[in-house]
Structure formats: structure tokens, C-alpha cells
Amino acid sequence: MIKNFGFHVPTEVQFGVGKIAGVGEAVARFGNRCLLVTGPKSGSVRHYLPRLISLLESAGISVAHFDGVIPNPTTDTIHAGALMAAKHRADVVLGVGGGSSMDAAKAIAVEATHEGSCWDYLFYKDAKPTEKTLPVVAVSTTSGTGAQVTQVSVVTHTATRDKSALYNSLIFPRVAIVDPELMLSVPKYVTACTGFDTFTHAFESAIHVNTSPYVELMAWEAISLVFSNLPAALQDGSNMEARTALAYADTLAGMCIANAGVTLPHGIGMAIGGMYPHIAHGEALALNYPAFMRFTYASAVKPFAKLGRMLNPKLKDVDDETAAKKSCDELDLFLKQIGLWKGLEEMQVPEEELELLAKQCRVLPDYMNNPRVASEADMLHLMQQCFRR
User: Fold this and answer.
1) 45 and 170 share a domain?
2) Which residues, 6+ apart, have CB-to-CB distance to 119 below 8 Å?
């Protein structure tokens, strides 16, 4: 029997090659004074910034450009952007880029219109964003975070080495433009990291305690698209068919986590990124997935067996328990294929900090949604397994 469930994604999605042409019209629905939020002008934004500015100005929009977003954006980053938004009297925020830019845009939309810092409005705190939150429009330029269709904004508090999130329906982007043409310039390694992130969103939402038939339907489609198209995109970054498929997978997986959520690997990944900001989110996930797989598969045999058979069709002839166990080895091979077979040691994580890292991994509640819940001792053992490949 199909269990009861709800599903809600309020974001209007404009998907397809050439859709960036409608960015001016999309932003103009919410005002004519826009804060554009991106990474540095000298970075990947340089490939499309002149056209983007032209499209906005042609729609009669006054643009202030905040280009101070860094990977794993910090509370300092958000504060600087919020000050610019207030000075410009922005009535809409446009986040353009990968997850960092889109997450920063969401947090700026809150801090620019509320007292205190965005950190005061984290998901577990009493203060909540209000209707004063500026509307957000998102343009994704990578295929990984799904931030263009989620109510999450991930921020790092530098002083405490803590990475956490705002989580509120008011920060769902009003419009998401997903144009695969903007992704043709994404470097190979970033493509691998973001593509793996897409897989993790889909898989974790499929095994999440709050999953639903609708989420599972989209999740397995996204997983199939990643396995079929990520290697092709890594081999030829200009492969528009592969880029489009990955952009679609990313959007599906984003909708999945907006309605179900993530599990153990994301709590670990957030802890790694908070303590060691030089490690990208997709890297942090790749670092811990081999250990997570072996820790969890016996507690969720059917989805792990399905995953194993998707990675290796020869496993269709074995029983579910065997296929689930073999899925661990098959994912190892996939990580090696896409260049993400790494350990914490290789990423300059000090071995003497593993116990501290293990404790930080249990700060966020994601691990509680895993089919097998990790104890404090389990978490330390997982970190030890992640340390050396």
C-alpha cells in the first residue's frame, strides 16, 4: 500500500538551452532594483556576466553586483552582501552560479531585511525569517547542489568552524533558470564533484525515513541520469546532451531533498566543510561515501541492491543481500572512474582531529534520518575509515 505523503516545490522552473534569455523578465516580476550575487568577476562568471548584465538592464533593472561569494560562504560573506543590498535598496536578489552563490543569495535575502545576522535564523533557532525576506531568483551554472529548487541556505561560521543551514520555505527561489549552456565552461573536476553531489542528494532522499513514492520516482531517475551521463561530461565538457541530462538530474534531486532530506553522509560532509573550508562539498561527500555505504547497506537492503544493479547490471542475477553488499564495491569503482577516490589524509585533515571531527558530525540531525543511526563510537570509526585510501 502506498503510504501517505505530501510534496511541495513552489519554485517556477525554466529549464533548457537558451533559457537565460528570460532572466530580465523573471527578475522584473519582483522589482526593478536587483542585487546580483556571484563569485568573483575574475572567476567562471566572466563567461556570461556581460550578457547577464545586458539582459537585466534591458528589462529596466538597476543592478548592484556583489561578487564576494567564496566556496562554503561564511557569515562575513553574507554580511557584506546584505550591506550592499541595503545600500542599493534592493527589492529582489538574483543568485547566479553554483550552490555557494545561490545559498549566499538566500541568506542575504534574509539578513538584508531582518535584525542581526543570518546565523540568528538557522533552522533550529527560535528566530525565523518573515515575509520581509527579499524574493530570490536563482540561475544555476553547475549541476550539483539543487539549490535552485530548495528552501535551504548553507553558511559557515568561521570563528566556530561550524557549517549549518537556514531552512525556511520563504527562501525557496521564486524562479529557477536552469540553462545547460551556462555549464559548458565548468571545469572537469568541478563537474565530477557537483555530479557526485547530485547522486548523493537523490540516493539519500530515496533511503531517507521521510521518503515518499514521488520522491523515490524522481530520485532513481536522477541517479540513472548521473551514472549514464557524468562520465560522458567528464570526457567531453562540451557534450550538450550530457550537460542537459545532468542539469535535469540536479533539478530532480534538488526537489527530492526539498521534500525528504539528506542522511548521514551530508551531516558528515557539512562537518568536514565547516572545519576544513578548502574541501568542496562534493569532495567531502566522496570522502565519506565508501564508509557510509558499508555502514548502512545491511539496514536498507532493497535500495542498496537496486543501486548495485544500476552500477553493475550483472548483479541482477544475484539475491538482494549480495547485490546490496556488492553495491559498496561498485560505488568505489565509480568514484575511481570520476577521479574522486580520496581520503581525509590526502585532503590535509590532521589525524589528531578525527575525534573532534566525529563529534562535529553529530551536531546536525541528518545522521538521525539514516537507515542505521551512528552512535558516537560509530562516528569515530567512520572517520577513521575515511582517513586513508
Assistant:
1) yes
2) 75, 155, 157, 164
Instruction: Pull the grid cell for residue 108.
Output: 542575504
Q: Inform me whether the pLDDT recorded for 1 exceeds 80.
A: no
Other C-beta atoms closer than 10 Å to the C-beta of 122 total 18
Is the pTM here over 0.85, yes or no? Answer: yes
Q: Which residue has cell 531517475?
A: 221
| d(C-alpha 33, C-alpha 328), whole Å | 50
Whether residues 17 and 145 share a domain: the answer is yes
Contact 99, 142 (CB under 8 A): yes
CATH number of the structural domain spanning residue 223: 1.20.1090.10
State which H helix or E strand residue 373 sits in: none
| Residues in contact with 314: Cβ distance below 8 Å, sequence separation at least 6, in sequence order | none
Domain that holds residue 320: 188-387
Query: pLDDT tens, 235-255?
Result: 999 999 999 999 999 999 999
Question: Does residue 174 share a domain with residue 202?
Answer: no
What are phi and psi for residue 94, nearest 5 degrees?
Answer: -115, 110
Residue with C-alpha cell 550591506?
83
Please check whether residues 205 and 137 belong to one and the same domain: no
| Residue 2 binned pLDDT confidence (cut-offs 50, 70, 90) | confident
